[in-house]
Specification:
This protein has nine helices and 15 strands. The protein is an alpha+beta fold. It has a single domain, classed as Clavaminate synthase-like (Double-stranded beta-helix), CATH 3.60.130.10.
Length: 295
């Protein structure tokens, strides 16, 4: 059965169905999903009751190798026993809602900053796939910004100025802006990575900004000037015309392209209401379809 794509925003994002992604193994449907990612950058799938192993297996079928060098691994042990399965929740290792002074909670508050998953690694993240397990009875949404449309809206002079610039991405930098303190060993484990500020996305050939809260400085620029430029670009890219807000419901799976979008979690009373999501992110390596088609 062919998939249907219903656009949810003028620039990007589509709701996709009907499909049970746990049962998608055929190359044709996987290719259709990849083509949808090329066009929309964010895809929303409802009613996807993934078990954790099914989530991991689908991500590998769709896009190849998985990201395991998460920032949180330097702080705490993954409660699922697999660093490829990101714990995007407000519960501790005992399944209890974390207190306000819990160190992992304070680290996780960085998800409320505009960011791109795993840009502090090389290779960075490509697709992230977030599965909703427990959704609170209050708004606990996620916002996405289309960095391709934001790039398109820049004037020619600004585009020329940005071409070829390299940016250092550091999760230590983004957390330190919130006052989070790392040990020396943690900082050594999280040194960051350098990526181009303007990226061309394979297959679609769309040009995209690649900035977010992890972007600490522009290489070979004075730090104050570079940080001001990065701040201004994030402000430009997160204007309402470029932003979509997703209202979660249990069973949702949202896939987004980190090369084409930024995202952030919206705040809610996370010391009162339980919220559990699982995220799997793939690596931005060449020819993912070859790897993903080998199921």
């Amino acid at each position: 059965m062919a998939l249907t794509f219903r656009k949810l925003h003028p620039h990007f994002v589509a709701e996709v169905g009907p499909v049970d992604l746990r049962r998608v193994h055929d190359p044709e449907t996987l290719a259709e999903i990849r083509a949808g990612m090329d066009e929309y950058a964010v895809l929303v799938f409802h009613d996807q009751p993934f078990a954790d192993d099914e989530h991991l297996e689908f991500a590998q079928r769709l896009d190849g190798l998985l990201h395991t060098k998460t920032g949180s691994r330097a702080l705490v042990k993954n409660r699922f026993g697999n660093e490829a399965l990101g714990d995007i929740s407000n519960v501790d290792e005992n399944g209890e809602v974390m207190k306000s002074d819990n160190r992992r909670r304070m680290y996780g508050l960085g998800n409320r900053l505009w960011h791109t998953d795993a840009s502090f690694q090389d290779p960075p993240g490509r697709y992230s796939m977030l599965s909703a397990k427990v959704v609170p009875p209050v708004a606990a949404d996620t916002e996405y910004a289309d960095m391709r449309a934001a790039y398109d809206a820049l004037d020619a002079q600004t585009k020329a100025k940005l071409e070829g610039l390299r940016v250092h991405h550091s999760i230590v930098h983004s957390r330190q802006t919130l006052g989070f303190e790392f040990t020396q060993d943690e900082q050594e484990a999280l040194k960051g990575a350098v990526h181009l500020l303007i990226r061309t996305i394979p297959r679609s050939f769309r040009r995209s900004l690649y900035v977010a809260s992890h972007a600490s400085r522009i290489i070979d620029w004075p730090i104050p000037e570079g940080r001001l430029l990065l701040r201004d670009l994030i402000e430009h890219a997160t204007q309402p015309e470029f932003v979509y807000r997703h209202i979660w419901r249990v069973g949702d799976l949202v896939i987004w392209d980190n090369r084409a979008t930024m995202h952030r979690a919206r705040p809610f009373d996370d010391t009162k209401y339980r919220r559990e999501l699982r995220r799997v992110t793939t690596l931005d390596i060449p020819e993912p379809a070859v790897l993903a088609g080998s199921s």
